[in-house]
Amino acid sequence: ILRYGIDQGFYWWFCNLALIGTAFGLFFKHRGWLTGFLSIACFTQIFWVIDNQYRIFTGENLFGLVEFMYQPGLPIDEFLLSHYHYFTIPVALIALIYLPQKKSNALLLISIFNPLIFGVSYFFFPRSQNINCIHEPCFPGLTHWAGPLYSILFWLIIFLVHLLIGYYLENFLVKTSYT
Questions:
Q1: pLDDT tens-place string over residues 110-155
Q2: S-S: 101 plus which of 19, 64, 159, 177, CB 3.0-4.6 Å?
Q3: What is the pTM of this model?
Q4: Burial class (CB in 10 A: 0-12, 13-18, 19+), 167
Q5: Contact status, residue 36 vs residue 166, Cβ threshold 8 Å
Q6: Within 13 Å of residue 87, how many CA atoms lie on the same side as its CB?
Q7: CA-based nearest residue to 56, from 82, 92, 27, 94
């Protein structure tokens, strides 16, 4: 925010919010926050990691999600910090395994934060920024799907995926916890 300004939505992407939510969950040892934001990270950061690995090994963009990192003039600190995507999921999983077993409010938190994140992405940032791919697909070959119907269907699909991942994490990790 300090470098680019609050009107630029770089900080509002799901991956960045998953990092912040995971940090909050770790700090407060809150299973619901960790599970909720891990469900977001599991869906979104996987594509980033795959795209970055593809870029590293081929020099080409697979999805175009990491293209910004390889532009001339990008500050080295920003390039290095962008690699947090590799650590968010493993750190959150390890934390969940070792936190005390108990039912959490992860699905409720997903039900609150997912619509909130998408709503802010849609209504508070310009269409040209396409934060969280809410106005049109982030994959270049699919941009013809843009429009309000796309926005609603995309949000609904992502919302259901986040809930399913959260449900799975909640039920699977409670059974495999080591505490």
A1: 999 999 999 999 999 999 998 998 998 877 677 778 788 999 999 9
A2: 177
A3: 0.84
A4: middle
A5: yes
A6: 8
A7: 82
Any idea what the Cα angle at residue 90 is, between residues 10 and 17, rounded to 5°? 25
Amino acid at 8: Q
Task: Give the pLDDT score at 65.
Answer: 85
Note the residue count of the chain. 179
